[in-house]
Each structure stands twice: as C-alpha cells, then as structure tokens.
Amino acid sequence: VNEEYRVDAVALTAFVAALFGAAGCSPDEAHAVSTNLVDANLAGHDSHGVGRAPRYVEMIREGLVVPGRRIAIDRDGGNVLTVDGASGFGAVIGAQAVDLGCDRGAANGVCVVALRNASHLGRIGAWAERAAAAGFLSVHFVNVRGRSLVAPYGGIDRRMATSPMSVGIPIAGGAPIILDFATSAVAEGKVMVAATGGARLPDGVLVDADGRPSADPVALYGETAGALVPNASRGAGALAVFGGHKGSGLNFMIELLAGALTGSGVNRTFRDATEQPFRNGMLSIYLDPERFAGRDYFEREALDYAAYVRSSRPAQGHDEVLIPGDKERRSRVLRLRDGIPLSQVGLARLNSVAEQLSVPSLTMR
Ligand code: NAD
C-alpha cells in the first residue's frame, strides 16, 4: 500500500542533504539531518523518515528550527547537566547531547542530561543506538511541547502528547537491544500515513469527538484528512493513549520528566501554536554497565534473557516472538538491500521542494 518506488539509501541521503544545503544548512548539518531521516526509513519508521523533509524546510522558513545551532550548557554539575537545544535541528542537537552524556558518564559511570528546547528529535531510538555504540545503557524520555493531541485515559479532550521513550542496551560486538515507542496508541506520523492513503489503522487508536474509539484519521485531521498535508488542528477527536490507565500514567510522568524537569515546559494549551511553538525536550540517563554488575555479566544475562523470551511458543497469528529492536534491525537489512519505499505522493512532495530550492529532482529508473 502507498508504496510505488524503491530508492537506494545512499542516493536518497545525497538528495535530501542537497535540499537542506539549499535551505540554509552547512554541508555537515545537511548531511546529519538527511542521514537521520533516511535512517528512520531504514529502521522501518517511515513516519519519521524523509517524508518529514518538506516540513523541516518549512520550519526553517517559519523560524521553528534554526540551522547552525549547537547545544548550550545552562547548568553544569559535571555528570548532571541542563542543556539548551537553541531551536536547532534535532538531528544535530540530539547527537551533541548524547555525546556530552557519554563523555561525562565516562568519569563515574553515570550521567543525566536534561535537554530543553530542541526542534524535532525524530526517531528517539537513534539516540539510544548512539549511546549504545559508545558502550552506554541509556533511557530517554521525550516531551513534545505544542502538540497536545492525545486524550488521557478516561477522557475525551486533547491534553497529552505522543511522548515517546526509548531504552538502549549495548552489546559489545553485536546489535544493541533498543526499545523505542510513543506512549500514544500510535505515533502521529502513522495516522498521517493512513490519512494520505497508507495502511489502515487498528480500531481504537483514535477517539472521535464524542470519545468513542475510532480508526478514522478524520478524528485527528477533520476535513483535511485526505489533503496533501493533513492538519491536526482541524480534527474534533484525539489520539488515544496506549496501555489504558497504565500507559496514560506513564505518558503523564514522561511529560513531567521531559517537559517540567528539563525546563522545556509541559503542554498547556490546545490549538494555540503561537503560545507554545513545537519543541522536543528530552531527559536522558546514561549508565556504564561496568560500574554495576560488570559489563560481561550484564551482557551475558541480557542475551540469555533475550533467548529465553524468544523461545516462547508463538501465539496464534504470530510466527515468532520478537524482542525490542528486532523489527527495526530486520527492516534495515532489507531496505539497505532493496531500497527505501517511497509513495508517488511522497516523491512528488520532495521534488516540489527541490524545485523551489533549485535542487535537481530525484528521478526514478
Ligand atoms: P511502534 O508502535 O512501531 O513500536 C516500536 C517498538 O516496538 C520498537 O521497540 C520495536 O522493536 C517494538 N516492536 C514492534 N513490533 C514488535 C513485535 N511484534 N514484538 C515485540 N516488539 C515489537 O512505534 P511508535 O509508537 O509508532 O513510534 C514510532 C517512532 O516515532 C519511534 O521511533 C518514536 O521515537 C518516534 N516518535 C518521535 C516523537 C518526537 O517528537 N520526536 C514523538 C512520537 C514518536
């Protein structure tokens, strides 16, 4: 569904980097943003892939994201830091914040970084993967300020955000184990994919204007559900939280950890983007397993447990039991081999931005 072309990851990265270069990013920054988006496609999360590039370019024009920004350390307690993302590209700011956390964590095995005021941090699992590559176990909680789209458990009105979290477990010489999801029933990007002709959503991931469970993107986008760029301020319903009252409670706490504690600010208005422009805040905790039960022991236990869980007999409708990160890793192997799927609409949107920026269009064989 909604999949008409396959594009090679390297070619796609170069094309998207050219867009950001023409939109005002340095070559390094353009490449970092492009690589981050293409990597989300490779992981199978098209909702956070190159389809976001047109919006990112618009955000530069609107001043919602500013090229060339770096993190600024507000408070430096050695291994407890508060840093400001200065409205910079999440792909750059996120990487700088993770690198800072791992550098500072080296001294005594623990570091906590509270990041505020970043632009879109994209797929949060990317940050857990970066920390794992540096040997750190990490936990990330993310606040999505200015996107109050999710109804709390037992409620009808938009009060919460999609507030994702990620946990990454480093495995020396092997793939890290990465958990990464939104605490809404699905990420907003998946509703957008469904609204523009992609896969149908499961029932109950949305609630309609009267609070009834729904699978219809109209609940979120109203009459703009079929438009090229659906507008979430137009729907009368909301996204549902995941996991009933437990997911709602987790979402609530993520907002406090990643919005209030970081200084990024919690969601407090609905449909007032002027008062609360979109920003991501992220509370990240970095731990060196060597300082606890020891790296070798920890990894052995982690791998043993993974094998034990996988060994469960699959339930009806499942071929096998997966652990966190399996799906993304498999997707990466397949998409590196076969290319990244791009819909006709997605390609047209990218090429129309390319035309505005006088960048040669992406052509399909
Ligand atoms: P999702 O529902 O696809 O869940 C992904 C997680 O579930 C992964 O850890 C995956 O390995 C695991 N998983 C998937 N299928 C599985 C199976 N069959 N068995 C066991 N585990 C399985 O993810 P989502 O909630 O739609 O989120 C998508 C992306 O959106 C994430 O990368 C998230 O970080 C991102 N996001 C970002 C923001 C932001 O503001 N930056 C906001 C919301 C979401």
Protein topology:
Layout: E1 5-7, H1 9-22, H2 27-42, H3 53-62, E2 72-76, E3 80-84, H4 90-108, E4 110-118, H5 125-133, E5 137-145, E6 150-151, E7 165-169, E8 177-181, H6 188-195, E9 206-207, E10 213-214, H7 218-221, E11 238-240, H8 244-260, E12 279-287, H9 295-310, H10 326-338, E13 340-342, H11 344-356
Parallel strand pairs: 3-4, 6-11
Antiparallel strand pairs: 1-13, 2-3, 4-12, 5-7, 5-12, 7-8, 9-10, 9-11
Helix pairs in contact: 1-2, 4-5
Nicotinamide-adenine-dinucleotide is lined by residues 45, 47-48, 120-125, 142, 144, 162, 164, 179-182, 186-187, 190, 280, 322, 324-328.
Fold and architecture overview:
Helix 1 packs across helix 2 and helix 4 packs across helix 5. Helix 4 links the parallel strand 3 (80-84) and strand 4 (110-118). It is built from 11 helices and 13 strands. It has helices at 9-22, 27-42, 53-62, 90-108, 125-133, 188-195, 218-221, 244-260, 295-310, 326-338, 344-356; strands at 5-7, 72-76, 80-84, 110-118, 137-145, 150-151, 165-169, 177-181, 206-207, 213-214, 238-240, 279-287, 340-342. The mean pLDDT is 95. It is of the alpha+beta class. The protein binds nicotinamide-adenine-dinucleotide. Nicotinamide-adenine-dinucleotide (NAD) binds next to strand 5, strand 8 and helix 10.
Structural descriptors:
alpha+beta, seven-stranded mixed sheet, four-stranded mixed sheet, 365 residues, binds nicotinamide-adenine-dinucleotide, globular
| Sheet with most strands | 7 strands, mixed
Instruction: Quote the distance from N terminus to C terminus.
Output: 20 Å
Number of helices: 11
Using only C-alpha atoms, the radius of gyration works out to 20 Å
- Low-confidence runs (pLDDT<50, min 5 residues)? none
> Which of globular, elongated, flat, extended, rod-shaped describes the shape?
globular
Strand arrangement, largest sheet? 2-3-4-12-5-7-8
Mean pLDDT: 95
Q: Which strand-content bin applies to the residues? A: 15-25%
By DSSP, the count of extended strands is 13
Order of helices and strands: EHHHEEHEHEEEEHEEHEHEHHEH
Helix content: 25-40%
Assembly of the depicted chains: single chain
Hetero ligands? nicotinamide-adenine-dinucleotide
Classify the secondary structure makeup into a structural class.
Answer: alpha+beta
